[in-house]
Specification:
The chain has 19 helices and two strands. It is mostly helical. Helices cover 65% and strands 2% of the residues. The chain is globular, with a radius of gyration of 20 Å. Strands 1-2 form a two-stranded antiparallel sheet.
Length: 334
Amino acid sequence: PTSVVAPAPSPRAVDARSSRLPEWASGLPYDEGLTDAARDRIHHEALVLARTLPEGSSLRAELFRVVTDEPRCGRAHAAVASAVLAESSAAEVRHALESMRTSCDEVVVEAAGFAREVDMDLVMALERLAHASGTSAVRRSAWLAYGSSGLTARRAGQSAVAARVEEAVLASLRGSRGEARDLAVRAAGNAGCARCVPELSRDLASRDEAVRRAAVAAFRFVEGPAPVASMCAAVAKDGDDGARDLAAWALAWGTSAPAERVVCLERAARHDASHRVRVQATSSLAGLSDDVVAAKDALESLADDEGLAVAPFARRALEVHDDGRPRPLAVRAP
């Protein structure tokens, strides 16, 4: 996992007239040479542009059409599609799903997981796609977006919608193996599925490193002391650098049991055998520091210890914190 700082809107994005949106979208680059920073800038510009358009706007629909009718769907196109759908109503997102017929279908389905509004009709549309006979890439994206829609519903107080997603994800977890199990675990992680914790906990003991990595990442949105204890145990004891790295990353996504999160992250930042894990633990402390005072205190302690390799990272995080710039934002689930 990596972290990025959300870029400031470019003058072009802020000053662009709505009539030029399709022209802007038609000039998007493909993946060759596209850096993460450039993709993030494009996504942010698309968000700014999409917010200028009212619900049901024909120009918003045209912008989306230009992006998704491309013969190839690169990361820039995916960034714009996700931005447009994030600013769309649940009905507009559902219409986009039901109208898919281009090479960008996978992108459209994946982008639906970023919608800020969901309802039962949208959830059912994603559920149908997850079980449909279409391409495996679309089905996979549908499962992941389906999980994300459950989390969005739960945070919005839509208990019936959230329960529908949790029940379906839990049913998929039970008895699944191999790739199907991996996909169900990732969907459970996107959903923050508390009822899935017993199933996920079994995966933490797997001999397969990939299974443990997926499982520990899936705890990130589940609140409470037990999930935090599981993530901290993985940070401290898992023999796989990748699993420890993901556990440290996952701990930044919630604030329950804050003292426990800070203690295990600071310990990892100081003592983990992997430089990558130490840096990720420091980054996670930075992500928590706006809401958890102890996390900022831990960063200051790391920054003051000149003998630590992560001290420069901690100082940089504190500078960002103190000058009011946007906080580092962790990307979506791996």
